[in-house]
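RECORD TYPE: inverse folding
INPUT: structure tokens
STRUCTURE:
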């Protein structure tokens, strides 16, 4: 058993657990109740109750809820002149008294809808000094748990004798975190779960991108390394209080996990042994060697697994892909739950709409991905193909064969579907793979990685595909040129450019997707409208979406340009113009032609002819995908021959530039490089070649006695 397995082995014996819900989980940023999170939490507790777990809750939030209700009451009963006066904050004890009643009423309502009964227990610090109280506490809680009732504890702030209940940290407990730890010890719980508004304990403030999530807290290592940020926006002590309570409980023998209360199923995941949050355990110092696997170790393991994969028959490799496709469909519901959680978190974090659009797995996406994998599995095996066979001399046969590149590092943002495509291509091409996804898709990537690697047989090993999560940042991975053979970045132009300038490892990808559609004067305008609209609005966040519309000047005079512009506006596309288009169409001027909107917006410019369009594309484009709509085939041929882009289309939407649509099965990305692979990169782009020479004892010996034939024997 590995150190990691031992660190989670205690979970199989957990029967009684204490769950502490922080104020930041109970309330939203505006102070109102987070009904969605509370509802999801109650559903988890109901499921645990049904599974036979004894669940004890400790909840915060009463003071904040009471303050909100009292503010509303004061507002309703105040005159206009009253509102002009300085508003004095409410007494904390009054807030606690009002809020406790409301909070428990809410819990009772939510649990009642789930056919679960809850009970309220208010305690103070002084209560625990009384032995009779503690004895009665045991008996009452045991009686409630036997009846499958959920005891809900809270400190009775309304009558607490502590002089400063939000600052005084004296006594047996000093906030609900320490109360939860005390109850876990007093009631002999097997596990304490502290729910927070972040994933767990970080090495620094969670908002600092340099901070790393600590999976297992080891006092000897982490005590001096951690830098705490600000206290909770609404509670008393934030992460500092949670860590203090967790350490006290853990070193007294109660395992503790600090994890996010925002995720819909984190408590269940903890009990299932998934590595969510931060674990505190009295034996954690014995697991000091159980460090998260770093990028180098992952790369070496991936290479070893890839060699085992290559040793399998073509049919066995095909079977693995088919099993991956089946596993994705079988776990579609779970995948969507995790993806929905990522999308909600991204929305709450205020991330860009285009990023959220790429993050979301839309209905039917899992089935589509599974079908793409099956199509890839049914393609001819690309590994070990004889590309060229030459007889060098009598009895000396040379073969040039296709071969995997080795270990690939894919750095991608937002799109969890990219993980599936890339993983399936890696399996088909016999490559090892390291994946570094964006933190905004952390949950989606984790579940997809688990589903895929679980489907890989032990004869190959799930380490064929490594998911780098926390320890290795991108700059560290880019230094591993001795164990990583190719980097493929998928994300913003800023990400791609930074990677290209930061590594000695070959990079395959494109920095921008500035795709053009040029509508010639000979164009069928009904066709042009269809092509332009599809290229822009089918999926505006895609790298193959149209970002610039170029139109022949004659279409201005004929009025046909106005019809095209009207259709774009009707679909909600925001238009910006070049110098000529601004004057003709009365639209705002684009600050630059070299701009990727990734949204429902585009640039429009008027050009003299196809040659001017070609010059514009070469000057301002990104050599990704460009299209001409024209009935004049001579003009079209000029455009197709002279536009120096990875993909050039005639009378077809730029959205066709896609590995699946090209029949490649899937793609790891679209390359605008001119070396190795260009355009949508499928299996062939992940292969290199090697030479195999078959002889019968021949030696060079100064080329004496060797008669070279160099006869082409390729079949």
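DESIGNED SEQUENCE:
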């Amino acid at each position: 058993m590995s150190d990691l397995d031992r660190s989670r082995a205690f979970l199989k014996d957990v029967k009684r657990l204490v769950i502490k819900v922080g104020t930041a989980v109970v309330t939203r940023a505006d102070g109102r109740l987070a009904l969605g999170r509370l509802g999801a939490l109650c559903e988890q507790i109901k499921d645990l109750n049904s599974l036979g777990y004894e669940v004890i809750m400790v909840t915060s939030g009463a003071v904040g809820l009471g303050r909100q209700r009292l503010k509303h009451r004061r507002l309703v009963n105040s005159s206009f002149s009253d509102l002009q006066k300085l508003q004095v904050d409410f007494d904390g004890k009054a807030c606690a008294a009002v809020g406790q009643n409301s909070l428990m009423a809410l819990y009772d309502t939510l649990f009642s809808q789930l056919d679960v009964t809850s009970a309220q227990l208010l305690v103070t610090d002084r209560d625990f000094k009384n032995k009779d109280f503690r004895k009665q506490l045991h008996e009452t809680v045991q009686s409630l748990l036997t009846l499958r009732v959920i005891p809900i504890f809270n400190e009775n702030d309304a009558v607490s004798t502590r002089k400063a209940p939000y600052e005084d940290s004296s006594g047996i407990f000093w906030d609900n975190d320490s109360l939860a730890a005390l109850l876990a010890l007093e009631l002999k719980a097997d596990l304490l779960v502290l729910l927070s508004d972040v994933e767990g304990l970080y090495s620094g403030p969670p908002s600092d991108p340099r901070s790393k999530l600590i999976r297992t807290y080891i006092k000897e290592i982490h005590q001096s390394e951690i830098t705490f940020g600000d206290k909770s926006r609404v509670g008393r002590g934030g992460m500092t209080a949670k860590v203090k309570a967790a350490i006290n409980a853990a070193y007294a023998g109660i395992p503790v996990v600090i994890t996010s209360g925002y995720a819909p199923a984190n408590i269940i995941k903890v009990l299932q042994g998934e590595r969510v949050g931060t674990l505190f355990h009295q034996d954690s110092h014995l697991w000091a060697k159980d460090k998260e696997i770093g990028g180098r170790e992952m790369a070496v393991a991936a290479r070893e697994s890839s060699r085992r994969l290559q040793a399998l028959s073509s049919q066995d490799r095909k079977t693995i892909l088919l099993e991956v496709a089946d596993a994705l469909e079988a776990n579609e519901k779970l995948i969507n739950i995790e993806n929905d959680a990522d999308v909600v978190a991204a929305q709450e974090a205020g991330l860009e709409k285009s990023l959220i659009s790429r993050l979301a797995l839309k209905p039917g996406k899992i089935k589509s991905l599974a079908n793409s994998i099956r199509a890839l599995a049914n393609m001819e095996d690309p590994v070990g193909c004889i590309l060229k066979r030459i007889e060098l001399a009598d009895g000396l046969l040379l073969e040039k064969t296709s071969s995997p590149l080795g270990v690939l590092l894919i750095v991608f943002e937002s799109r969890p579907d990219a993980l599936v495509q890339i993983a399936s291509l890696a399996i088909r091409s016999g490559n090892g793979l390291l994946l570094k996804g964006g933190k905004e898709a952390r949950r989606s990537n984790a579940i997809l990685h688990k589903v895929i690697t679980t489907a890989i047989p032990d004869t190959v090993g799930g380490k064929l595909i490594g998911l780098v999560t926390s320890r290795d940042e991108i700059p560290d991975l880019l230094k591993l040129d001795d164990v990583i053979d190719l980097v493929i970045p998928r994300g913003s132009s800023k990400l791609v450019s930074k990677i290209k300038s930061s590594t000695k490892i070959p990079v395959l990808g494109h920095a921008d997707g500035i795709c053009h559609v040029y509508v010639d004067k000979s164009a069928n305008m009904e066709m042009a409208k269809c092509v332009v609209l599809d290229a822009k609005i089918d999926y505006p966040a895609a790298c193959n979406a149209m970002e610039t519309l170029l139109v022949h000047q004659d279409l201005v005079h004929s009025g046909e340009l106005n019809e095209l512009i009207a259709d774009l506006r009707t679909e909600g596309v925001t238009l910006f113009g070049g110098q000529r288009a601004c004057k003709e169409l009365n639209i705002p001027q684009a600050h630059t032609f070299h701009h990727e909107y990734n949204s429902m917006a585009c640039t429009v410019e008027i050009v003299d002819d196809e040659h001017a369009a070609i010059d514009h594309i070469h000057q301002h484009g990104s050599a990704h995908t460009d299209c001409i709509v024209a009935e004049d085939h001579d003009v079209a041929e000029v455009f197709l021959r002279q536009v120096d882009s990875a993909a050039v289309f005639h009378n077809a939407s730029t959205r066709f530039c896609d590995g699946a649509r090209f029949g490649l099965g899937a793609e790891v990305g679209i390359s605008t490089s001119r070396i190795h692979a260009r355009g949508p990169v499928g299996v062939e782009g992940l292969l290199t070649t090697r030479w195999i020479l078959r002889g019968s004892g021949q030696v060079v010996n100064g080329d004496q006695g060797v008669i070279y034939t160099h006869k082409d024997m390729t079949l």
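NOTES: The CA atoms of residues 433 and 465 lie 5 Å apart.
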